[in-house]
Input
Amino acid sequence: MVAPPRRAVAILGSTGSIGTQALDVIERHPERFRVVALAAGRRASVLAEQARRFRPALVSCADESDAARLRTELAETQVVPGAAGLVAVAVESGADVVLAATDGAVAFEAIFAAVEHGLTVAIANKEVIVAAGELLFAEARKSGASILPVDSEHSALFQCLQGERRDRIAMLVLTASGGPFWELSEHEMHRARLADALRHPTWNMGTKNTVDSATMMNKGLEVIEASRFFGVPADRIEVLIHRTSVGHGFAIFSDGSIKGQFSLPDMRGPIGYALAYPDRLVEPRQLDPLMALGGRVGEDVTALRFERPDRRRFPCLQLAYDALSAGGTAPASLSAANEVAVRAFADGRIAFGEIAEVVKAALAAAAPRALSLEGVREADAQGRVLAQRAIAETKSSTGVV
Ligand code: MG
Output
């Protein structure tokens, strides 16, 4: 058997949750991967430690002052700060695969550059697919770039759709854990605090993702993401609550057959699949089928339970469907307004229940822009301004609670 060639990997967002887990995967498979470039934001000391471990030729961080320090610490590594550094990591590092593991809009330009260069781009940066997915996939068709999903649900669907015709998809189903507030009453949920949200049942992720999981905006953004990835409209994408997060996604086909993907919740699975695609990595396996499906030691039965979410209780999920149906730059406005609302909640300026109200108000006031990169940027900026305005008018910030 011929060994697969070692892939050169560049990571945008190497110090975040996905970035560090990707480095775990790479460290476990040195025969398969090498790190050629890393980009981080403000966690420069973590970046320095990663650079000493993986010896990339190029690193990038947000600030010039951090960059100066990194240059003296890492004598053999080129250090390019800021937006230019992100682009350099993406397209000037000689990477075969660029893993986009950044949050928000910071790496949009670098991700587009990687796609324009025809590279393989593994995307965990949800916002870029949500806001500019149509543009990104159009560019990939021109350049020949492959865009691979890293999000667990989209990785699941991508795996289910291998070898299948897209016009034979009847429905795609994304599973959702329901988040930390699933058991709460509507009233309790309205007043829930950040500390409560950070106690997420199964996945370990950043603050933004955790709050998005609690509002189910995360799942809403994933519905939009799935529509962009697989070319399926809003009315053929469903969400089912599945608290144990063992089944990640299902495709229902034209003949009624269903394919699903199951694995214990561990992001290193989908990350490894994207990095090694179309191959699979060889990992220590769980050979007890019940345990592999989330069963407990010594028990001879396990159950997989799915339930329909109530979109009234989770208005953010409905808002995402609305934005997807509206199309154009509405998803960009939605994502930007949500970022601002989540920040306001995390800072204690608005109540949990007001996140959806802020996003809804911003979405209603947003004027559609042309579907171009420029239009997406304008919609993003406008969404932020409209969200700030809506926050100033909430009961919490006006003291009328
Ligand atoms: Mg997900």
About this structure: The chain has a mean pLDDT of 93. Residues 151-153, 222 surround magnesium ion (CB under 6 Å).
